[in-house]
Design brief:
Blueprint (H helix, E strand, L loop, with lengths): L29 E8 L5 H14 L5 E8 L5 E3 L1 H8 L18 H10 L3 H4 L10 E5 L10 H8 L3 E2 L4 H8 L1 H10 L7 E5 H5 L3 H12 L3 E5 L9 E3 L2 H11 L5 E6 L4 E9 L4 E9 L7 H6 L4 E3 L6 H17 L4 E12 L5 E11 L9 H9 L3 H20 L7
Parallel strand pairs: 1-2, 1-4, 4-5
Antiparallel strand pairs: 2-3, 6-9, 7-8, 7-9, 10-11, 10-13, 11-12, 13-14
Length: 407
C-alpha cells in the first residue's frame, strides 16, 4: 500500500439473512472489532495504524474488541491493547503489540463477538449482531488482498473497506494495471514476469527485454506487496536482474515499471456507490524515491496538503482517482497515487497524471496521507472513522438482500 516510483452446486435449502442497518448515531451502540498485525512484511505498519485508529474510536459510540494476528499467522484476543484502552485512550502506545494467547480462528472470533466490554464502556455486548463491524487494519498480503475479506463475508459480518474482488485486484499491481489499461486510464509503462520467467534459463533475457522496453532506470517491485517493501530502483540490466530475484522473496510475480520523472500526487477516496474524492496532496520524497523509511520511520518526506495544483489540474486528478476507484470495484476507502509528468526526460511535453497504484487499506498513522487529505477537505479523523463504519453497515445491508441459492 504505498507509493513507489520515480521516483456452485445448487441446494434446495434457502438461506435467509436478516441484517437490519444500525447507524452509528443511533441509540444502539456499535461493536467494533479491530484486527491488526498479520503475516505480511507490513506487520509493524498495521500495529501503528491500529493504535491511532483505536484513539479515534469514540467510547460513547463504540464498544471495542481488539484481535491480533502474529507474524506467524496465530490469531488471538489482544489483551494488552484492550487493557490499555480500559485505562483511557491516552494509555495506548504509539504501536500495538500483536500478543496474546493463541487460539483457533473460530474461537478467537467467537470470543471477540461475544466479549463483554463493560469494563471499558459501561455497556455490554453479548453476541454478534447487525451492529457489529470489523475494522481489518491489515496491510499487504493475507489481509489487504481479499483473504480476510472473504472470511468475513462467509461469516456474514460487516467490515470496513473493499470487498474480496476490489481488495484482490488492487493488491496485485500487475492485475490493477491490466484493469486500468482496459479502462484507458493513463499509467506508466510496465512489464510483469512470473517466477519461472525470471529464474528459468531465459530469465536474464526476459528481464533485459523488459528493461529495453521500459528504459533505464526501472523500478522493480513484488506484484503483491505494499508500503514500498521489496522495491528497488535499477539503473542497469544487471541491477534489474538482482532486484527481480530479491523481489521473489515476497511474491511469485514481479512488476517492472518505467521510472517517471514527475511529481507524486495522492488523492483519498471515500464512499460506496457514490464515492467522493478529497483534495489532492503532494509528496516530496526525502530519499531517491518515497520508500518505507520515508513513509513510516523517518521524517524526511515533505507532505504538501493541498497540493499546489491549478483548479483544472486538481479537478482532473480527483476525477481520475474516482475512475480508478470504480474500475477496480473498490468500496469504503482507498488512496490513489499518481505521478504528474509535466515534462519527459528529453524535455518534450509530459503525459500528465499517470496512476501509480491504489491502496484499499491505506495507512492511518500520524504522517499518513489518507486521513491528512480528509482533514484538509473538512472531515476530522474521528468523523472519518465514523463514516467508514456507517459505509460498512450500509454495504452489508445492501448485499444481504441478494440470494445465495436457487429458488
Amino acid at each position: 500500500m504505498g507509493n513507489v516510483g520515480r521516483h456452485e452446486s445448487h441446494t434446495k435449502v434457502k438461506r435467509t439473512r436478516q441484517v437490519p442497518l444500525i447507524r452509528v448515531n443511533s441509540r444502539s451502540r456499535t461493536h467494533v472489532i479491530v484486527i491488526f498485525g498479520g503475516e505480511s512484511a507490513e506487520h509493524d505498519v498495521s500495529c501503528v495504524t491500529a493504535a491511532h485508529v483505536l484513539r479515534a474510536l469514540d467510547p460513547q459510540k463504540y464498544d471495542v474488541t481488539t484481535v491480533a494476528i502474529s507474524r506467524t499467522g496465530e490469531w488471538m484476543l489482544a489483551e494488552s491493547a484492550m487493557a490499555a484502552l480500559a485505562r483511557g485512550r491516552d494509555a495506548l502506545p504509539e504501536k500495538l503489540e500483536a500478543t496474546g494467547r493463541p487460539s483457533s480462528l473460530g474461537d478467537v472470533m467467537a470470543n471477540a463477538a461475544a466479549r463483554n466490554m463493560s469494563s471499558t464502556s459501561g455497556h455490554n455486548v453479548s453476541s454478534a449482531s447487525a451492529n457489529t463491524v470489523v475494522l481489518p487494519l491489515l496491510h499487504g498480503p493475507m489481509g489487504e488482498d481479499g483473504t480476510v475479506q472473504g472470511l468475513l463475508d462467509l461469516a456474514h459480518v460487516a467490515y470496513v473497506g473493499a470487498g474480496v474482488l476490489g481488495s484482490a485486484v488492487s493488491m496485485d499491481k500487475a492485475t490493477t494495471k491490466r484493469v486500468l489499461a482496459a479502462e484507458n486510464i493513463p499509467q506508466p509503462k510496465f512489464v510483469a514476469l512470473r517466477e519461472d520467467a525470471i529464474t528459468g534459463a531465459a530469465g536474464s533475457t526476459n528481464i533485459s527485454d523488459a528493461v529495453t522496453k521500459l528504459g533505464l532506470p526501472v523500478f522493480v517491485k513484488p506484484a503483491n506487496m505494499g508500503s514500498s517493501v521489496g522495491v528497488a530502483k535499477a539503473k542497469s540490466a544487471e541491477e534489474a536482474i538482482a532486484a527481480a530475484r530479491a523481489a521473489l522473496a515476497y511474491d511469485e510475480w514481479v512488476l517492472f515499471e518505467e521510472a517517471v520523472v514527475g511529481r507524486e500526487i495522492e488523492v483519498s477516496v471515500l464512499g460506496n456507490r457514490e464515492p467522493r474524492a478529497s483534495v489532492a496532496g503532494e509528496i516530496i520524497p526525502g530519499r531517491e524515491f518515497y520508500d518505507y523509511e520515508d513513509k513510516y520511520v523517518g521524517d524526511g518526506a515533505k507532505l504538501l496538503v493541498p497540493a499546489p495544483l491549478s483548479d483544472e489540474e486538481a479537478a482532473q486528478v480527483r476525477g481520475l482517482a474516482l475512475r480508478v476507484f470504480r474500475a477496480v470495484r473498490a468500496e469504503g476507502m482507498a488512496r490513489v497515487d499518481f505521478f504528474y509528468e509535466e515534462k519527459r526526460a528529453d524535455g518534450s511535453k509530459g503525459r500528465g497524471f499517470l496512476c501509480n497504484e491504489i491502496n484499499t487499506i491505506p495507512g492511518f498513522t500520524p504522517i499518513s496521507m489518507y486521513p491528512k487529505l480528509w482533514q484538509a477537505t473538512g472531515l476530522s479523523y474521528p468523523a472519518l472513522i465514523d463514516e467508514l463504519i456507517s459505509l460498512a453497515l450500509e454495504r452489508h445491508e445492501r448485499r444481504a438482500k441478494f440470494r445465495t441459492t436457487k429458488r
